[in-house]
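W.,

You were right to be curious about this one. When I first looked at the sequence I had no strong expectations either way, so I just let the prediction run and decided to look at it fresh. Below is the sequence, 145 residues in total, followed by the output.
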Amino acid sequence: MSETKRISKSTTINAPIEKVFDELLQVQRWHMWTKSITSISILDNSPICVGARLKIHQPKLMPAVWTITELERNNTLVWEKKSPGLKIVAGHVLTPNPEGTVVQLSIQYQGLLTPLVFRLTRDLTSRYLTMETEGLKNHCERVNK
């Protein structure tokens, strides 16, 4: 039987949603504001769009190729990684509010290997999501001044 597990983190960023989304799309610069990313490279010389493939290097993890599956301007960026028995979906959802922009980052595990992979990576994934939400917040608020 297939199982699903999810980890998410959110924060409010004191910056307009357009600015936050623009920073989020600058994937090759993520390493500048979060230590959870060593580098991200866009494969196939494609633009950031649905179907684009990204190679992500993270500390303590093997390099992985992710594919953008959803992109809605100033709202949503979703990418996923598939392997036999497991699909991992990374969601980045932005919502405007009176203080600026609420950002919710999530990782969802789906498939037969979910219980094992989730147990092995849950703590690291949670730390990385915290680093990414805090890093994006600090970066966007600094450049928005």
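Here's what jumped out at me. Helices lie at 17-25, 114-143. And, maybe more interesting for your project: The domain at 3-143 is CATH 3.30.530.20 (Alpha-D-Glucose-1,6-Bisphosphate; Chain A, domain 4).

Coffee later to discuss?

I.
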